From TrEMBL, chains A, B:
InterPro entries: ATP-grasp, ATP_grasp_subdomain_1, CoA-bd, NAD(P)-bd_dom_sf, Succ_CoA_lig_flav_dom, Succinyl-CoA_synth-like
Domain ATP-grasp span(s) in chain numbering: 489-525
Classification of source organism: Bacteria, Pseudomonadati, Pseudomonadota, Alphaproteobacteria, Rhodobacterales
GO BP annotations listed: tricarboxylic acid cycle
Origin: domain of life: Bacteria
Keywords per UniProt: ATP-binding, Ligase, Nucleotide-binding, Tricarboxylic acid cycle
Name of the gene encoding the protein in the UniProt record: sucD
PANTHER family found in the cross-reference section: BLL6376 PROTEIN (PTHR42793:SF4), COA BINDING DOMAIN CONTAINING PROTEIN (PTHR42793)
Organism: Pseudosulfitobacter pseudonitzschiae
PROSITE patterns found in the cross-reference section: ATP_GRASP
Family membership: In the N-terminal section; belongs to the acetate CoA ligase alpha subunit family.
Record-level Gene Ontology MF annotations: ATP binding; metal ion binding; succinate-CoA ligase (ADP-forming) activity
E.C. no: 6.2.1.5
Protein name according to UniProt: Succinate--CoA ligase [ADP-forming] subunit alpha
C-alpha cells in the first residue's frame, strides 16, 4: 500500500474527472458528484459515463470510459458487482486514479476481501491508484475538485472554505462530519480524503503525499486502526521533515473502545498504549475529540510556532488570566514572571494591576482600549517570550471598539511578526475571521489559547528534534525458544547492554574457577529450563565469599535440583554479588502487531506493576527518545534521588535502552519478547547494569 | 459572613430598587442599572436617589434614601469615600439589602479593609445584607431584576434568557463574561451574583440561599479563594440536601495559578489538593474551563439524572460511536453490551450494523430516518440503562428531516420520561433549543454527550450518598508540643485508632515486666525528645525473645543514649515485634487554613512519596468517604493484593481513617499535625494497626 511519492498528483489535482455510473438524478450517488462539481468552481472537464444516456445533467455523456479521452480521475459509482470491470476498463484507459464509492467488499467478509485485493492488485499493476472501495471520496478545495457524494459539499453557500488544513479520514461519515463542523466554525480546508476500506491508498499514502503539498500547512488524520505501521511511520517522518504538524484522532483509548474499534474496522487495533507512544515518538498531537481535533488544527494553520515555551498572558479579567495560567502551566508552558522593567512600567499605567504574569489590564480597558496595545507592546518589546495570549473579553462586541482593536492588533502584529499571538474572546464571527486572517487565532474559550500554544510548542520541539533513528542491520541468528539465563545475558551483552558476567559451571571445580575470575563474593543459581522458582527449593545461594563456600554451594544446589523429578539440570550459574546504591528498573521488548518491535521501560517493584507505570517506543530509538521514555513515567522523580538518595545515571540508562532497542529492531523477525529485570541504575557516573534477563525467540 | 437562610429574599426578589448616585447618563455606572431596569421588564419600583436632580432618566428622583419610602434593595454607585455614609443611611431607612459597586476597600490594603469591615458590621447590626463592595451586582432574570452595571445586561435583544441556572461569581468580570458566553450558546440563567470583596455576603451565603430557591435547578460557582471554609461546606450541604447540583470553577490548579490567585484575591488560597478533595467530598463537580462550566451546567439543567451508570450509545457513524464509547468508559460509565434480544432484532433491521453497544444505525439512516426511533425504542424498552446518547450527525440540518426527527423524539421521550437522553449533533440553533426545551441536551460535540452523562451520574451518586458526618464533641486537653511516642500512641489508641501496645520502662526490671505483659518477642527503643535517628546510635533493638535479652538491651540502649551530650533520656519504649503479611500505609492530619482539620491517606514507601500519591478529606469523614479516599490513590491496586498477596482489610483501614478524622475534628484547635506511619493493613479480616505515630500540638 505504499505508493511512490508524487503518484497521487492525478488524484488530488485532476484536469478531468469521469463519473462511471453517472446519474441524471442529482440526489443519487452517481448524480451527486456531477451536481456538486458543476457548482463548486471546478474548471476541469467533467465526464459522465453512462451507456444509456446521451447527456447527464446537461453534460455530454460517454458510453464507456474508453471513449472518454484522457481522464485523470474516475469515480466508480456503480453497484459493487460491476466494480471489478470498472477497474479493468479504467486501467485500460490509462486513468490516473480511481475513487471507488461502491461497497460490498472487505467489510462484508472474506469473499469481498478477495475481490478487493484483486482490484487493488490490478490497479497497481496498471499504474493506477485506487481510493476505497466503500469510501465517500476526495476533495481539493482550491480547485473545487469535489469527487465525493457527502452532503457537506452539496450547497454552494455551505461549500467548505478553501483553507490550508488537509483532512484524511478512514471513515467517510467522520470525515464529512468534520468538514461540516469545521465549516460551522469558519475553518477552511485544503483537502478531504476518505480512505474507506483502503484497498490501495491508505491514510499513510495520503499523508505522505499531502505532507509535500504546498497548499497544505496542517494535516488532520482520523484513524480507526492501521494495517501498515511502518508505512504510517514513514509518512509521519515525511510530514515532520516538511514541518507539517499532524493532529490525530484515534479510536480505542479504552478497552471498550478498542474492542468496538476492532469489530468496527477490519484493521488490527494493536495496543493503544503503543499507538499513543508512537504518536509522541513521531511528533503527532493526539486530540481527545472532534472539538480539539479541529481547534488545534485551526490554531496551527493560523499562528505559526513559538520559539520557546515562555508564554505571556494579558487579560482584562484577573480570574480568566489565572485560569489561562493554570492551563498553560499544566500543559508544560512556562508562565515566567515578566521582567521588572515591564512590571514597573505597567504599574505606572495601572497602579493596582497584577503585573507579574498574567498582566492584568483590568476593567479600565473598557474606558481606554489602548491599554491592550500598550500591554502587548511592552511585553513583546521587552521580552523574548515565544508566545502571547491576550484575552479580549467582550471588547470586540462593540463594532467601534472592534475596529479600534483590530487596527491596534495590526500594528502590534506587524512589529512582532515572529511571535505566536492568540486572542481569545467573545468575538463576533467576522472579527474572529479578521484576526485569523492576520495570523491570530481567536477562539471563544480563553483556555483554548494556552492549549493551542502548548500544541504549537509541541511541534516546535518535534521539528527541532527530528528523530535520528539509529541504523539497524539485520541481526544474527539467535537460539530458538526460551534462551537460558546465560545465553540471554550473553546475547544482550553482545548487543551492547551492560550485563553482569555470568559463567556456567558444570562441576564444583568449574564453579571455583569462575568465581575466582569474577571475584568474590559471588552468587550461584541452579540452571534448569524446567524449574521456575529456584530459590524456593534451595537452588540459589547468595554472598559466597570463598572457594570453600562455592564448593559447598555447588553440591547443595545440585542436590536441590535432583529433588525435582524429571527436571533437566544444565549446571550452575556463577555471577558476581552486586551490591551498592541504585534504582531497580525493567527494560523490555515486545512485538506489536501493528508497529513491530517495541521497547518498554519502567521501575522495578510491585507498586509500579500495580499501576502500569511504564513507557513505550517503537524500536529503534535514539538517545533523546530514550530520555523521553525515562521522563514519561509517573514515578520519574525516584530517579532524581528521593530521601537523600543520589540522582541516577540517566545517561547510562538511556544508552541501555538504545542498545536494547537496536537489538530488538535487528532481530524483530526472531523475537517474541525480552525482559531485562532488574536493570540496576547506579548513581550518576556509575552506570547501569542488567542483573538478569529473559529472552524468548520464536 | 454566615447569614441566616432566607435573609437574602429582599436581595434576590426586591419590590423596589433604589440607585444611590443615580446618573442621567445611561453610560455611567450610576446610570446603567436604571437604564437596564427600565428595559428589562422589571415591574417593581425604580427609585433614583440624587440630591441634585428632580428626575433621572425620566423617573422622579429622591434627595436621599430616607425620603424614598420602603426600599428592598439599594445600589450604592457613589465614589468609595461616600460609601460608609450610604451604609448608615440605608440602615436608617430599613433597606433590606445593599449592592455596593463602589471600590477602594480591601483590594487596596489594610485601611480599605478596615472601612469595609466597619461597613459590613454596621449593615449586619442594622439587619441589612451587603453585597460587595467592589462588585458588579446581582440579577434575577425571572423578574428582570438587573441590579448590575455589566454590559451583558445592556441590550434588550441580548438580555440573558430566563433559565434555571444560578451563577455565583467572586469576580464581576468573570460572572459577566459567563453570562455573555451562556447567552451566546442559548443557555438561560435564573440569577447572577457577583460577590466582589465579600464584605458581608459571600459565595456561600448566595449558594445557601439559591439552593433553596424553587426557580433554581443548578448552581454554578466561581471561586478565586475562600475565607470561610466551614461556611462553604455548610452551603454545599444545603445544596446537596435540596438536590441542586453545584458545578465549580476554582482558580489555582497549578502552583503558578495558585500564586497568581493568592496575589489577585485577598482570600487565602489554601491547598488546591484539599480544595479539590473537598469538592469530591461534598459533591461538587469541578470544571476545567468556562466551556465545561457552562456545558455541564446547561446539561444538568435540562436532562435530569440517570438511575444507573449504564449508557447506551446510538450513532449513524461507527467512528463517532466509538469515540463516544471511549469517553464514556474513561469517565467511569458502563458501556455495557446490549442484551442479545436487542442485538438480534437490530441485526434484522440492518444486517451489517454494529449492535453490541454502540448501536450503529449506519448511513442507511439517511434514507430511513425512522431507524433512529426504532433503535431508541428497542434500547429503552428492552433495557434499564440509565442513559442514552444518540448522535444525530447532520440529520437535523435538513428542515424536513429535522421536523420528522423532532416528532419521533417527542414520542420516544414521552414513552420513557425517566431516562436521561442526550442528542449531540450538528443542529441548527432552533433545533437544539427545541430538543432542549423537551429535556434533551443537544451539544454539537458528540463526546460532550457521555461527558454530561458522567457528570449527571456523579450527582446521582452524590445525592444518594449524602454524607452522614460522624458526630464530633470537643476533645479533651492534649499535652502541648510534640508528644513523645508513647503519649502519641496512647492518645490515638484512646481515639479508637488500633495501635500497638507500647510501654515506658525506666529500669531494666520495668522493661522485663512490660515485655512479659506484651508477650515476646519485643522491640525496644530509646525514648528521648532530643535524639532523632535512634537506630544510628544503637538506640533500637529488635526481636528480643526472652528476659535476658530485654535486660541486656535496656543496658545497651541506656548506654547508647548516654553518648549523646545534653540529650534528655526518658527511658525505653517496649513494644511488640509485629510481623506477618500486610501493606504499609500512612495516615495523617494537617490543619488547612481554609477548611481546618484535614485527614490524609497514602501507601508507605519512597515511590508513593515521590509521586505525591495521597488522598485528602476534610475531617470528620464517615466510613463511605474513608473508602472513597482509599479508592482514590493511583496505587489502589496494591491493596487488592498483587503478585499473589492477599487482599487487604479495607474495612479496618477505613475504620482507622474515620477514627483519626473524628479525633482530628475534636482536637482541631490544639493540633498542628499527626502522622501515623506505618499503619500496617493486614489481610482481609485481620485488621489494621498503627506501629508508630508522631503527634504535634500547638
Amino acid at each position: 500500500m505504499d505508493g511512490e511519492i508524487g503518484s497521487l498528483q492525478r488524484l488530488f489535482y485532476p484536469r478531468s474527472i469521469a463519473v462511471i455510473g453517472a446519474s441524471s438524478d442529482p440526489g443519487k450517488i452517481g448524480g451527486r458528484p456531477i451536481d456538486f462539481l458543476k457548482r463548486s468552481g471546478f474548471e476541469g472537464r467533467i465526464v459522465p459515463v453512462n451507456p444509456k444516456a446521451a447527456t447527464v445533467q446537461g453534460l455530454p455523456a460517454f458510453r464507456s470510459i474508453g471513449d472518454a479521452g484522457q481522464v485523470d480521475l474516475a469515480i466508480c459509482a456503480v453497484p459493487g458487482k460491476f466494480a471489478e470491470q470498472v477497474v479493468d476498463e479504467c486501467v485500460a484507459a490509462s486513468v490516473g486514479a480511481l475513487v471507488m464509492f461502491s461497497s460490498g467488499f472487505a467489510e462484508l467478509g472474506d469473499e469481498g476481501r478477495e475481490i478487493q485485493e484483486r482490484m487493488a492488485a490490478k490497479a497497481r499493476a496498471g499504474g493506477m491508484r485506487m481510493v476505497g472501495p466503500n469510501c465517500m471520496g476526495v476533495a481539493t478545495m482550491s480547485t473545487g475538485m469535489v469527487a465525493t457524494f457527502h452532503p457537506a459539499f452539496a450547497k454552494v453557500e455551505t461549500l467548505p472554505r478553501d483553507g490550508r488544513i488537509a483532512l484524511i479520514s478512514q471513515s467517510g461519515a467522520f470525515g464529512g462530519l468534520c468538514v461540516q463542523m469545521a465549516n460551522n466554525r469558519g475553518i477552511g480546508i485544503s483537502h478531504m480524503v476518505t480512505t474507506g476500506n483502503e484497498g490501495d491508498v491508505d491514510v499513510s499514502d495520503a499523508l505522505a503525499e499531502l505532507a509535500q503539498d504546498p497548499n497544505v500547512d496542517v494535516i488532520l488524520i482520523y484513524l480507526e486502526g492501521c494495517r501498515n505501521g511502518p508505512g504510517l511511520i514513514r509518512a509521519l517522518e515525511i510530514a515532520r521533515a516538511n514541518r507539517k504538524p499532524v493532529v490525530a484522532v484515534k479510536l480505542g483509548r479504552t478497552e471498550v473502545g478498542a474492542e468496538a474499534a476492532q469489530s468496527h474496522t477490519a484493521a488490527l487495533a494493536g495496543s493503544d498504549a503503543v499507538f499513543d507512544a508512537m504518536f509522541r515518538q513521531f511528533g503527532v498531537y493526539r486530540a481527545r475529540n472532534i472539538e480539539e481535533f479541529l481547534d488545534i488544527g485551526c490554531a496551527l494553520s493560523i499562528g505559526g510556532l513559538p520559539a520557546n515555551n515562555r508564554i505571556a498572558i494579558v487579560t482584562p479579567s484577573g480570574g480568566v488570566g489565572i485560569l489561562m495560567a493554570d492551563e498553560a502551566e499544566e500543559r508544560g508552558l512556562d508562565v515566567a514572571p515578566l521582567p521588572e522593567t515591564v512590571q514597573r512600567r505597567f504599574k505606572e499605567l495601572i497602579p493596582f494591576a497584577g503585573v507579574r504574569n498574567p498582566l492584568d489590564v483590568t476593567a479600565q480597558v473598557v474606558s481606554d482600549l489602548t491599554l491592550f496595545e500598550q500591554a502587548l507592546e511592552l511585553v513583546l518589546t521587552e521580552t523574548d517570550f515565544g508566545s502571547v495570549v491576550c484575552f479580549l473579553g467582550a471588547a470586540t462586541n462593540d463594532p467601534n471598539h472592534g475596529k479600534v482593536l483590530l487596527e491596534s492588533w495590526d500594528r502590534v502584529r506587524a512589529a512582532h511578526p515572529d511571535r505566536l499571538m492568540i486572542a481569545p474572546g467573545m468575538h463576533p464571527p467576522e472579527v474572529a475571521r479578521g484576526l485569523e486572517a492576520k495570523g491570530t487565532y481567536a477562539p471563544i474559550e480563553p483556555t483554548y489559547g494556552p492549549r493551542a500554544v502548548a500544541a504549537a510548542w509541541y511541534f516546535t520541539q518535534s521539528f527541532a528534534n527530528a528523530v535520528d533513528r539509529p541504523a539497524v542491520t539485520a541481526g544474527s541468528q539467535l537460539p530458538k525458544g526460551q534462551l537460558n539465563e546465560i545465553e540471554a545475558m550473553d546475547v544482550l551483552g553482545a548487543a551492547g547492554l551492560p550485563v553482569i558476567t555470568e559463567r556456567l559451571a558444570k562441576t564444583a571445580e568449574e564453579a571455583v574457577t569462575a568465581a575466582r575470575e569474577i571475584g568474590f563474593p559471588v552468587v550461584m543459581k541452579l540452571l534448569s529450563p524446567d524449574i521456575l522458582h529456584k530459590s524456593d527449593i534451595g537452588g540459589v545461594k547468595l554472598g559466597l565469599r570463598d572457594e570453600a563456600a562455592v564448593h559447598a554451594a555447588f553440591a547443595a544446589i545440585m542436590e536441590a535440583g535432583a529433588t525435582v523429578a524429571d527436571a533437566r539440570i544444565d549446571g550452575c550459574v556463577v555471577a558476581p554479588m552486586v551490591s551498592g546504591d541504585g534504582v531497580e528498573t525493567i527494560l523490555g521488548v515486545t512485538i506489536d502487531p501493528t508497529f513491530g518491535p517495541v521497547v518498554m521501560f519502567g521501575l522495578g517493584g510491585v507498586l509500579v506493576e500495580a499501576m502500569g507505570d511504564v513507557s513505550f517506543r517503537v524500536a529503534p530509538v535514539d538517545h533523546m527518545q530514550a530520555r523521553a521514555m525515562i521522563d514519561e513515567i509517573r514515578a520519574r522523580k525516584v530517579l532524581d534521588g528521593v530521601r537523600g538518595a543520589p540522582p541516577s545515571d540517566l545517561g547510562a540508562l538511556a544508552d541501555a535502552i538504545v542498545a536494547l532497542s537496536v537489538f530488538a529492531a535487528a532481530h524483530a523477525d526472531q523475537l517474541v519478547s525480552i525482559e531485562a529485570n532488574p536493570v540496576l541504575v547506579r548513581p550518576d557516573g556509575q552506570g547501569a547494569i542488567a542483573l538478569d534477563a529473559v529472552v524468548v525467540t520464536k
